Amino acid sequence: MIPDRSQILMPARWSTIIGSFAVALFLDFLPWRDLRLVPDFVALALAFWCVRQPRLVGIGIAWILGLVTDAGNGVLLGQHALSYSLLAFLCLALSRRILWFGPMLQSLHIALILLVAEAAALIVRLAVAHPFPGWPMWVGPILAAALWPVVTWILLLPQRRPEREQAI
Q1: Which of the four pLDDT bands, split at 50, 70 and 90, describes residue 110?
Q2: How far apart are the first and last CA of the chain?
Q3: Closest by alpha carbon to 114, among 43, 36, 30, 37?
Q4: pTM for the full model?
């Protein structure tokens, strides 16, 4: 079912936001075979909430999520924090523009934002003499952008009003 873009949504609850970040962190901490080919679920959830709820989720939450992700993945502390902060800044700055478009054009915007965030993390890794991880690392942000319409639909489900309330 394609959602009606003119539908009025209920306010987002903190429990929904925190739950989505918990699920995203769980998915990021799973032992994937090749992390370069896996979407960054925390970045995707963060981008969604920064675009949809810019007054609730911002750069501070992005920084904290980045530190948790760094600690959980055992990588250089601050690498994801910087990347997620840049992602949050771009999403906050472009949130009103992104919401004007349909899901497919939103995916293109999100793809560019995720690629910029991945490039920032790559620069940090290269600055501390890590080897270049290879070109497949760009697949993850593209896959995450392809998941954008599905993630949007799933994360907006708790905010949708029941059909009987829509008719009133």
Answers
A1: very high
A2: 21
A3: 43
A4: 0.89
